[in-house]
Design brief:
Elements (H helix, E strand, L loop, with lengths): L6 H13 L2 H8 L3 H15 L4 E4 L2 E4 L1 H28 L5 E6 L1 H18 L4 E5 L3 H9 L5 E5 L9 E15 L1 H7 L14 E4 L4 H12 L8 E3 L1 H9 L4 E5 H4 L6 E2 L8 E9 L6 H14 L1
Parallel strand pairs: 3-4, 3-5, 7-8, 7-9
Antiparallel strand pairs: 1-2, 5-11, 6-9, 6-10, 6-11
Helix pairs in contact: 1-2, 1-3, 1-4, 2-3
Length: about 300
């Protein structure tokens, strides 16, 4: 007996045994009737016995054929189910998209894009979480995330990770009318900020690195009174606690805050996206990245 039998022969046998008709089996398999007959003959020769005997309107299983059909049926159907499941992933009818987006990047870019993706592909499970850029990229490298959004600067020493720029926005100082009224003047110069309460992103954030470098280049010591996450920061500013720092694109069209027009502008910073290399990405990840790139045009 030949143990190295082509799996396709078993699949053909399974379909013929299911329909008990060569014509119907060939239609189901999208192959010719002679090809079906030839596959059955090769399987019988390899096994050393008959699987079917012909009738005028089809075929019937031999006793050995019945036993073989009952034995392989669960395995063949499991393979078919696996193929169907894979097709669902390929057609974006099943899957998962794990996004890491810290601070202002989420507010500025990610949430709207993720919502559009969810509307277009409602069967894809979407998970969005924050975190430091370095930690998020480490998770991406370990397979614990699919897409990481971050603001530059970003160090990447992982050979299996690709990074591309997706957007940019200027950092600005902003506050409320209530705070300016209590302050008694409107800051117009960087030096004026020393007389105000500054609420800044935390030291380890990428945004804070950009801000610190900006002031250091001008010989000014940046000393915020409060340091916190970008989410807490916005709430503090809204409640009249001081002057915050945020990306201008997030603040546009808001009538509850005032963007300060200083003599020197804060820098324009770039947002980036990190993913595993294309061949390691899921179907959902590839489609989401395609949407991100289309948004950039």
């Amino acid at each position: 007996m030949n143990n190295n039998i082509n799996l396709e022969y078993y699949k053909v046998f399974y379909v013929v045994a299911k329909y008990l008709n060569i014509t119907n089996a060939s239609d189901a398999l999208f192959v010719s009737q002679p090809a079906v007959t030839q596959a059955i003959q090769k399987l019988e020769n390899s096994l050393g016995g008959k699987l079917f005997y012909r009738q005028h309107n089809g075929v019937l299983l031999t006793e050995e054929g019945k036993n073989l059909y009952n034995y392989i049926k669960p395995s063949i159907e499991a393979l078919d189910n696996a193929s169907d499941r894979f097709a669902q992933y390929a057609l974006l009818e099943r899957g998962r998209l794990r996004i890491k987006a810290g601070g202002a990047v989420g507010d500025t870019i990610v949430y709207n894009l993720a919502a559009k993706f969810a509307k277009k592909y409602p069967k894809i499970k979407i998970e969005i979480a924050g975190g430091r850029s370095k930690d998020s990229i480490d998770k991406l490298n370990k397979g614990e995330a699919d897409v990481v959004f971050f603001s530059f600067p970003c160090e990447n020493d992982k050979k299996n990770i690709e990074i591309f720029e997706c957007a940019n926005s200027r950092l600005v100082f902003y506050t409320t009318k209530e705070y300016l009224d209590n302050l008694g003047f409107v800051p117009t110069k960087l030096e004026d900020l020393k007389r105000t309460t500054i609420i800044s992103p935390k030291l380890e954030s990428n945004t804070r690195i950009v801000i610190d470098n900006f002031f250091q280049e001008r010989g000014i010591k940046f000393e915020p009174q409060h340091e916190m996450t970008i989410y807490s920061l916005f709430t503090f500013v809204q409640n009249g606690c001081g002057i915050g720092i945020e990306y201008e694109s997030f603040l546009k069209d808001r009538d509850d805050i005032i963007i300060l027009d200083l003599d020197e502008k804060l820098p324009i910073n770039t947002f980036g996206v990190a993913t595993l290399k294309k061949e390691a990405c899921s179907f959902a990840t590839l489609e989401f990245i395609k949407m991100v790139k289309e948004q950039m045009k």
